[in-house]
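User:
Hi there, any thoughts?
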Amino acid sequence: MLASLRSDLYFALRQLRKSPGFAFTAILTLALGIGTTTAIYSLIDGVLLKPLPLPQPDQLVAAYTEEAHPGQSPSHGGTSYPNYLDWRDRNHTFTQLAAYAGDGRLISRANGMDGAVLPICRVTANYFDALGVQPILGRNFTPDDDQAGHHVVILSYGLWERLFAADRNVLGTPILVSDQPFTIVGVMPKGLLEPRGNDPADLWTSFGYFLDGSAPRGKERDSGFAEIIGRLKPGITQQQARADLSTIQSSLAQTYSEDRYLTSVFIQSKLADITGDMRPALLLLMAAVLAVLLIVCTNVAGLMLTRTMKRRGEIALRAALGASSWRVWQQLFIEALVLGIAGGAIGIILAYGLLRTALPLVPDDIPRIGEVAIDGRVLAFTVAISILCAILSSLVPAWKLTRVSPIESLREQSHSTTGGRSHNFQNSLVIAQTALGFALLLASGLLIRGFINVRHAKTGFQPDHLFRFMLPLTHARYPDPKKALFYKEFLPKLAAIPGVRSASGGYPTPLHGAYASAPVEIDGRPNPPDNQLFTFIGEAEPGYFETLGVPMLQGRTFTAADNDPQAPFVALVNQAFVKKYFPNENPIGRHIRPDLSELRNQAIDLDPTSRNDREIIGVLADFQQTSVQDPPRPMAIFPYSQASMLMRPAVVLRVAGDPMQYEKPAQAALASIDPTLFLLTPETMEMRLVSGAQRFETLLISAFASIALFLSGLGLYATLAAMVASRTREIGLRMAIGADRRDVASLILTRAAALVLSGLAVGSAIALVAARSLSTTDWWRPLLFGVSWFDPKTNLTILLVLGAVSFAACFLPTWRAIQVDPMRVLRDE
C-alpha cells in the first residue's frame, strides 16, 4: 500500500511538472481560497469559538434582570446591588456569584504625575474567586473591602510594570483614582483576560465605592448599574440556574415596589454574552468565505477535468490493463492532494499576511480581537480544508472518467478530441460559480449601498470640520463651580486659535450613544407613579448647538446670562420632546420639573436644586442621538452652569481644514491653564457616522465578492476555452461550408449567455432564500440602512458588473474561435 502511494506521489509530481501552467493556476487558485478561509476562520475562532482563558470557562455565565411592563416586550439589563446581595445569599446553583461595573477614570501616582484615563472595574470581593484567578502579589479583596470607606485597589500586571517598574514593594503604596487616594493591596498575573469584552481593566477597586456619600448608589434597589457573573456548581445547567434566580427575583418583586416589573432573570454563557452582537456578522463572513472556497473547488475541479479528459487515452489504457476505478481515483486524488497541500502552504502564508494587514484595521468594538492568531487550532483547520479541497476537486473528474468505457475513450482519443461528455459537467460548474458569485455580489452591493446611505444620512447636524474631545476634570480638583469657571476660561482660548470658527462644549454629542435619562413632570401632564414620564437629559455651554450646526426651530438658544447658577432655570427641548409631550401646542414658556437626583455622583451630597422648575425657552431640531438608524428620543437640555453636576461635557470646535490638525493647538491652550491636563479621545465627528464594525464587515464582504467575481470569470473563460479547443475541428468544418466569423462568435457567445443566465437564475434563488431567512432577524438592519433586499439600483449595477466580467471572459475564447483556419482543419482531416 505504501509503495503504491509512493509511486502515485512520484507520478503526480512528474505529471504536474509536465504541466506547469495548470499546476501554477490550480495552486494559486487554491491558495487564494484557502488563505482567505484560514484568515476568516482565525478571526471566528479567536472571537467566537476559543474558550475563555479561565479555569472551567463553560461554568461561567452572565445573569441579567428581566424587566416586563404590561403590554411591552420583556428586556434584560443590569442589576441593583441590593438585589445582587439577595441573589448571592439565597441561590442554590452557584459556587460564586459576583458583581462588577466598568468605568474609566484618571489614574496617576500619588504625586499626580504620569496621569492617564484608563479602564477600571469596580468589583465585589468574590469577583476573582468567581473567575478562578488570584493575585501574584499581595491579597485579594475581602468582604470588609465591600464596605463604605474602604478605598483599596488591585493593579493589573501591565499597570504595575508601567507605573511602578514591577516593584514588589508596591503593596501599601497610595495611587490616585480620579485624584482620590486608594491603597494598593495586590497585583494580578500577567496576561489576565477578563471576560468583559474588549476593554480589560488596568486596575480593580472594591464595591465600597458605591456605598460612599449621603445618597450611595449601592443602596438603591432600583439602580441597575451592576453586571453579574457567576460560576455554576458542577452538573448545574443554565436553565436550572435561571429558574433558581428567577424564583428569588419573583419574591423580591412581590416584596419591593421598586422591583414590581423585575420578575425574572435571564442567563447565558459568558462567552455568548461577550460575543453575542458579533456572532451573526462573523457567521455571515464565514458563509461568504466558504462560498468563495466552494467556487475555488469548482474552478480547480473544472481545470482538473479538462486536463484529465486530455489524458483519457492514458487512463483508458491503464484501465484496459486491469487498473480498478479505485486505483484511478487514488491517482487523481494524490495529484489533487499535492495541489491542495501546496495551495494550503501558500494559503497559510497569505493568511498571515492578511491578518497582519487587516488586524490593525479591525474596529475596537469587536470583542476578543486580541485573541485572534494563527495557532495550532487554525493550522489543523487549514490542513482539513486543504484535504477537503483535494477530495472535492478530484471526485468528479475521477467519476466522469470511470463511467466511460476504455474502448470508447480510446476511440475518441484517436480523433484527437477531448470528448464532449465533460462539457455538461463543466457547464454545471460554471453555473454554480456564477450563482454563488452573483449572490455574494448582491450581498456586497447591498452592504455598500447601506454604507453609502449611512454616510449621507440626515444627522440633524453638520459633522464636517468638527473636532471633538473630552477633558479629565476630576471632582477632587475641579468641583462643580470650579468646572464651570474652567470652561469659561478655556473656551475663549480655543476660539482664539487661528482657523477655529467657534468653540463650545456640552453633553451629549450626536451619534455618541451615551445618554442620561430622568423622570420629568410636565405642566398639564399626568405623571402616575406606575407610568412616569421620562426624557433624555443634556447640558450645554452657550453656542454649543450653533457650533454643531443644529438649527433652532422656535424660541431662542442659551446666552451667557443663562449660563449662571443664579439665573432663572431654563431649558431647551428637541422636536421629539414637543411631538410627544406638546402635540399641537406651543411649548415656549411652559415649565418642566426633571428629577435629577439619580444622575448625581453618589459620592457627593445632592444639590437641593436637583429637582427644580425650568422654563422652556426654545425648541431644537432633532439630531441623531445614538445612530443614524435610531429615531431621536425626547430630550431636555440645560445651561451647563445650571447642571454642571450631571455629566462631563465634550468640547467641540468648528474649524477650517482638517479637524485633527487642531489637536496640538488645543493641547497648548489647555496646558496654559493646567499643564497636568490632556485631551481625551480627540476625534472628528465624521468618524461617528459609520461604525467600525459596519465598515469592516462591508470591506470584507466586498473583498470576497470581488474574489468570487474574478474566479467566476476565470471559470467561464476556462470552460469556453476548453469548448473551443475541443470543437476546433467542428468550427473549422462549419467555416469551410460557409459559416462566417459572426456565426462562430454567435455560437460561443450564445453558450456563454446561457451559462451566465442559468447562474443568475440559481443565484437569485439563493439570494431569495437568504433574504427570507435573514428578514426574521434584526442584526442586519443597521448594515442595510435605507436599502431593501430587492433594491433595483443595486441589482441593475450587479448585473452590469457581472455582464462586463462575463464579456471579458468570453473575449479571448471567441477571438481564438474566429481565427480557426478551415483549410488547416481540412488538411488535418
